[in-house]
Amino acid sequence: MSKKVFIAPRLVGSRFEDHTLPVNILEDFTVLEDLIIEVAKGIYIAENPNRKRVPKGFSDGVYLKLVDIEEGSSIPKFAIASAIVLNSALPLENLDNFSYFEKAKDKIIELLESVNDGNVPTQIDYKLLSYFSKIGKNLLDDESIDFGYNIVTRTPSNAILNKLTRKKILLSSEQRTEYADSIKLFALIPEIDQKNNTFQIETEFGNIKCPLTETIKDSVFVAFNEYINKTYVSIKGTAQYNRYDKIQEITEIESMDILDPLDISLRINNLSKLKDNWHEGYGKALNIIGLNRFEHLFNSYFENKLPLPAIFPKVDGNIQLEWKNENKNIVIEINLDSLKSEYFYYNDFDDSDEKEEIIELSDKKGWIELNNLIETIV
């Protein structure tokens, strides 16, 4: 079977800096495979007007095969393969229909380039929109996929799919005023409607109705009963947005977790909302990119068995972490630009029992050092 690279998209974003792929991003490439096949069929019909349908077996067994992941950020290399080739002496490129899959890939790349050049199509086949409703749905705000990246010359393209490009494509049809996208929300639960199997979540965007399913029912009732104590939940799922990016409804909830009051992601979400002059007319807004990077590293490398810290903003735009165990205290001041931290330990009752260190938290080594220091004290 030929291992020639068919397409090698380049993924950019904080989750790809370690040159790996989150599992949910692989779902996007499964849909890309289906889209390429569908577009290839359309090209065949267009080029053969005497045919009303593609030949039997046109795409039987055709699939994308992940053969490697290269660095920079993450570049998955896909070959195109076919079960037919397993029983053939010919490489896939020599089979009659292969050119249509190449043309389909090129057409998808051209579409993305056109959208990013400002030439948003006024009408896209509704069937194709269903694929784009899934491709890119799992991307975060700081992430993108360059589908036209040239793996040979290491040259980027303008065929970049991000949340904005995807929205433009999904709203390209005049009949379409809404689009679906993945969500991750922090919310309180003030109301449950058992008769209609729905519940309300209270978010920074307002109250939103959600479906009450068996898989999340226990968590919903716990959070509802703890509403007065401001017990938050995190919700991952799919929401329907209007063209002004306002959530109309949540159509699916994949998971729901009841959060610890000191949950890092919840606290960072709240801190990211601070604006300049947030403290009595002064105080800098926090570096959002630095906050997101800190959150990613904390969730990746902080030991789960250790207690969570309280996190506070500093007026200089950085953050401070604090732990307290009886008379023992740990304070860590973190520079969000460099992730260099100043570690302070002191004992309320013993002035000689103290320690200061500089710890680099931009990589795993620094977090291991921090975990060991905290473990000996708390």
UniProtKB/TrEMBL annotation:
Q: Highest taxon of the source? A: Bacteria
Name this polypeptide is given = Uncharacterized protein
Organism per entry = Rhinopithecimicrobium faecis
What is the phylogenetic placement of the source species in the record? Bacteria, Pseudomonadati, Bacteroidota, Sphingobacteriia, Sphingobacteriales
